[in-house]
Structures are given as structure tokens and as C-alpha cells.
Predict the 3D structure of the following.
Amino acid sequence: MPISDNITNRLVRLEGAFGRVFEDAMDWAENNFQEEIQAIKWGWPGKTIRKSGEEAGTIRNIVDLGGLMASQKRENTGKDKTAFVWTGADKNGAEKAYALEVHDGYSSKSGGRLPARPFTDNAIQQLPSVVDALIAKEVTSNG
């Protein structure tokens, strides 16, 4: 007597799974980048009174007036290809390119050094385990 495990039906249901996993992973990354900008974890030398009037301590978020967060764009550049881009924005919403200085830090002309706040690093480090979990979810939900 033949044995059947219905594998064909399982394979049909898995069709497109990697595209779904990719999209879900990019959704997760998009949210994680925003969470990292809002996280109170970034070291800074001294206290600062922000333009918003809020006092920011030595461990803080990097939201300030929200320009960096608002400038985040997700660009789907092809099948399973996505780029995230940040520029920054001034208080009126006009783009002002300072995202790189926030992410990588920089030295000012007066000799001061502003620390790096690499808000993309967590997502990049966590992405392999996020993708693994999403793949496992697809496999178990389809079979």
C-alpha cells in the first residue's frame, strides 16, 4: 500500500513564503529603526536643553524635534530589495542632511567631537534571528 504525506499541498502553500518573510522582516526593521531613535540609551557628553525646551541628560533618545524619525524612508528598489534612507529634517520639515552625523558622529570645526549614535545597528544585528523566526512561522503555519 502506498504512503502519502500530502507534501504537494504543503509545498503549494509555501509558495511565496520567502517573499512574505522578506516583507515581514522589512516591516520589523522599519519599526525597529524608529524604536531605536526613541530609545533612551544613547550616551551624550553633558546635559542639553533641546530646541523643544526639554532637558536631555547624558543618556537620552535621539528624537529632539523628530526630524530624523520623520525623514526615514523605505524604498522598495526591486523584488526582495529594500533600502532605508534617512536625511534629517529641520523644524519646518525641510530636509537637512544630518542623519549621517547622528549615526556615525563627527568632529566639529571647533574641535569638539559628537558621539556616534548608530540607530541602525540593532536591526542589522537582530535581522538574522528575526528572519529565522519568520521562516519557522511560515513553515509551521503551512504544514
Summary: Residues 36 and 119 are 5 Å apart (CA to CA). The chain has a mean pLDDT of 87. DSSP finds five helices and eight strands in the chain. Strands lie at 42-43, 48-49, 55-56, 59-60, 73-78, 81-85, 106-107, 113-114.
